[in-house]
Amino acid sequence: MKRLYGVLLFLWTALLCCGCGAEEIQRRQFTDAVMGTVLQQSIYAADMETAEALAEDVVLLLEDLERQEISWRQEGSELFEVNMSAGTTGGFLLSEEMTELLIKCRELWESSEGALDVTLLPVVRLWDIDTWAAAGETAGFAPPDEEELERALALCGGEKLRLEPQSFREDGKVLQARVFMPRGLQLDLGAVGKGAALDKIRVLLEQSGVESTVISLGGSILTYGEKPDGSLWKVGVVDPRDTSSQIALLSLEGQWCVSTSGDYERYVEAGGVRYHHIIDPSAGRPADGGVRSVTVLSKDGFLSDALSTACFILGVEKGMELAGQYGAETLFVTSDGSVILSEGMKKYIIS
Ligand code: AMP
Ligand code: MG
Predict the structure, then answer these.
(1) How far is it, in rounded angstroms, from Cα 285 to Cα 7?
(2) Distance 227 CA to ligand 2 centre (A)
(3) Which of 4, 187, 217, 287 could bond to 280 as cystine, CB 3.0-4.6 Å?
């Protein structure tokens, strides 16, 4: 009997200790400015040091990605070098990562019938919406001169981006390519960079030992793992005309990426017109596909980001069809404020 009591006491103590351990897992939040936007991390960890170390690793990863690879502004980044190589005969030998990224961009350019076009930098720079929006200043803003716009648009075009394979993987996919850029061609990865970053963060999280995290980077969100209490992640979709409130709430398991492209993110208003940062490549002007925002749900960060931009330009019908080809779900907020959901998106909406 005594031994039985002893065993029971031991089990009870063990149970209590497990309980204590589980209770110590807390949500720790971090906010930083990275990649020209706001990074918010909610990391569920047993102790602050673990959470802080992970949060710092994520910031470093993003700073490196920006500085060394994908920023067209950052002198010395790979993309900067690629843009510098425009007009040279030898082209530029891409890293394996950049090869993969540009191949994916080119595929999306094709499947979106040119809507997603990473060669629009000359036009993007001419409008310079990012700078005007960041300054929060409208006085002095005017749309670019028509002739200048036409000249800039003539320099752009996904068909001008030539990628020549240099080596292959065992499965036949291109490992490394050389890019040949005609004079004037300039790349901007702003439409896909944050989503691609989420894919990299996911790999980091897998190695970290931390089991539940949600990361928000500008308009793109990654849910990772299960919440300690077993409940689902709640991800709000911003109301494009009242950004302090939500137009919908999604309930998601871990491993989803949610990206939103909207005319409310970066814009200038002048003469009653809203000039935003998403350019219709066929016109060289802010796209007017009849939508205020598009939210795309995919397991792949690159796709969620690339598709949200493309869908914004294509509008509801064509956009939903394109996203469907990639198994992605969509939520459109149209110009009259109504919300249109793809069939598969409906089950994730809780309000
Ligand atoms: P996002 O917020 O992901 O929709 O990306 C918008 C950013 O991508 C802009 O700030 C531009 O830098 C760039 N961009 C604008 N229009 C396009 C386009 N049609 N295709 C690719 N990138 C674009
Ligand atoms: Mg995008």
Answers:
(1) 75
(2) 27
(3) 287
Protein residues with C-beta less than 5 angstroms from the ion ligand 2: 191, 305, 308-309
The one-digit pLDDT tens for each residue of the chain (351 residues) are: 444 444 444 444 343 334 444 448 999 999 999 999 999 999 999 999 999 999 999 999 999 999 999 999 999 999 999 999 999 999 999 999 999 999 999 999 999 999 999 999 999 999 999 999 998 888 889 999 999 999 999 999 999 999 999 999 999 999 999 999 999 999 999 999 999 999 999 999 999 999 999 999 998 999 999 999 999 999 999 999 999 999 999 999 999 999 999 999 999 999 999 999 999 999 999 999 999 999 999 999 999 999 999 999 999 999 999 999 999 999 999 999 999 999 999 999 998
Contact residues of ligand 1, CB 6 A cut-off? 115-118, 120, 124, 130, 188, 190-191, 219, 261, 265, 277-279, 281, 305, 308-309, 313
φ/ψ of residue 105, rounded to 5? -65, -40
Read out DSSP for 294-345?
A: EEEEES-HHHHHHHHHHHHHH-HHHHHHHHHHTT-EEEEEETTS-EEE-GGG
Q: Residue 17 CB: number of other CB atoms within 10 A?
A: 10
- Rounded CA-CA distance 171/104 in Å is 17
Report CA-CA distances (Å) from 177 to 96, 120, 174.
8, 21, 7
**What is the 48 CA–ligand 2 centroid distance (Å)?**
33
Q: The whole model's pTM is what?
A: 0.93
**Helix count and strand count (H, E) for the chain:** 10, 17
